């Protein structure tokens, strides 16, 4: 029961990132680049304090750290920019669909064993994304998905997929996450100073960015890595499939976002495809 509750809390944190980002950028008019920088920097500070408290020490790492930092930056800024024009549930669906495809591609390149069910599942998930992102596909009355925000979220999905693939090689995932955040934060701040709009700052938007960085990103990721050994790989993958559904529910409750049949159908294909891909044969 304790593991179940911690897993549910972590998935809620992941989904909350979508709602918080959408609210800060959409409702408070906060600049997406600035939101991402504040989120990343506050998360880095929180993780650094966690590492000091746990006496884990700091390790710079090799070339793999650079790959992880680039993946994290692509995720943070792609994620933030995408929510200029995407709803919470839709953004989460695109994100985790592309993450699964990216990690599938990484497994193929690494020549891991690929059962037929895994190929079928990847095809179903890809089909769901194509249907969701097809220009003008609006037979249920919902508006066509905006292209550039969808591309930004797809880039975020690739970044998170690469970040996750690299993370499998880390011996101390919490320490590695802290170092990735700490190294990415200065780059994010420079990007915000160069391209961000400081005039768009508001107390509400900054508060949401700090909550996203410290709680739902920094602490959420640390909690996720802490419970992964108890979950195992397959149950962890299944658990993440709940994130788009939670994000969609959060968007409906807090942001008055509509639910369309097109989203439901695409979500069923993506989630069903990932479930099929997890079969052993």
How is the topology of this model organized?
Elements: H1 2-27, H2 32-54, H3 63-82, H4 88-109, H5 116-133, H6 147-167, H7 173-195, H8 203-231, H9 233-240, H10 243-254, H11 261-277
Helix pairs in contact: 1-4, 1-8, 1-10, 2-3, 2-7, 2-8, 3-6, 3-7, 4-5, 4-6, 4-10, 4-11, 5-11, 7-8
In short:
The protein is built from eleven helices and no strands. With 281 residues, the chain is an all-alpha fold.
How would you explain this protein's 3D organization?
By secondary structure, the chain is mostly helical. The chain has helices at 2-27, 32-54, 63-82, 88-109, 116-133, 147-167, 173-195, 203-231, 233-240, 243-254, 261-277. The protein is globular and about 45 Å long. Mean pLDDT is 80; it is low at 138-142.
What key attributes describe this structure?
281 residues; mainly alpha; 11 helices; 78% helix
Structural class: mainly alpha
The total beta strand count reads 0
Helix content: over 70%
Which term fits the overall shape?
globular
Residue runs with pLDDT of under 50 for 5 or more positions:
138-142
């Amino acid at each position: 029961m304790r593991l179940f509750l911690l897993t549910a809390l972590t998935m809620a944190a992941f989904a909350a990132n979508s709602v918080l980002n959408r609210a800060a950028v959409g409702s408070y008019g906060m600049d997406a680049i600035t939101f991402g920088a504040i989120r990343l920097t506050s998360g880095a500070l929180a993780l650094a304090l966690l590492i000091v408290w746990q006496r884990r020490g700091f390790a710079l790492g090799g070339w793999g750290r650079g790959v992880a930092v680039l993946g994290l930056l692509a995720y943070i800024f792609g994620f933030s920019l995408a929510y200029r024009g995407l709803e919470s549930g839709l953004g989460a669906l695109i994100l985790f669909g592309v993450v699964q495809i990216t990690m599938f591609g990484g497994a193929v390149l690494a020549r891991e064993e690929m059962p037929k069910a895994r190929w079928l599942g990847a095809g179903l998930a890809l089909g769901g994304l194509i249907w969701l992102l097809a220009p003008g596909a609006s037979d249920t009355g919902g508006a066509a998905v905006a292209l550039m925000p969808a591309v930004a979220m797809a880039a975020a999905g690739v970044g998170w997929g690469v970040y996750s693939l690299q993370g499998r090689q880390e011996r101390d995932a919490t320490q590695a996450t802290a170092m990735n955040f700490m190294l990415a934060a200065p780059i994010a701040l420079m990007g915000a100073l160069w391209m961000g709009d400081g005039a768009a700052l508001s107390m509400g938007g900054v508060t949401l960015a700090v909550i996203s960085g410290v709680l739902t990103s920094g602490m959420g990721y640390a909690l996720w890595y802490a419970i992964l050994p108890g979950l195992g790989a397959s149950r962890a993958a299944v658990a993440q499939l709940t994130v788009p559904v939670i994000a969609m529910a959060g968007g409906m409750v807090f942001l008055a976002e509509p639910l369309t049949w097109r989203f439901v159908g695409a979500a069923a294909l993506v989630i069903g495809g990932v479930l099929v891909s997890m079969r052993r044969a």
